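Late entry, written up from scratch paper. The run itself happened at the end of the previous shift, but nothing got recorded in the book at the time, so transcribing now.
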Amino acid sequence: MIDNPLPDEVMQQKQRDFEDELFKEYSDKEAEELCSDHCVWDDFRSNFKEWYHDYLSDPEKQDPNDMIDKKNLIEEWWDEHGDDLVEAKWGGWSGNPGPYEVDPADYEGGEPPISADERSRMAFEAKQESHPHRFGFRYH
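Output as recorded:
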């Protein structure tokens, strides 16, 4: 009887694909948390996620879990890709605003700022709670 190695190879490839997908999900989640924690522009987050995945895949790079402050990864990514991203987003604009929606120096030592959208949503929700009759809520 002939031993066919093909099924074993197919199963090994499926296992590698599954592990690669799990790793991609992990790196995307980690990158999104890092972006959220440091108020990175939403428009730049997908690019950072790709860069972060490549960073984690490189065995020569330092393990981010060993870092006290991972913010320097954002700085490293921005140094490598910031000018190209700014050019793609704002065209010929000569300034480089940095990767942050809100300047982190504005809140050093305090609570992180919230975006204008978050502030507006929170104000609306507070108004709904304090004036339920205006928004169609009735207490029985």
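The helical segments are 6-37, 42-57, 71-90, 116-130.
(Scratch paper discarded after transcription.)
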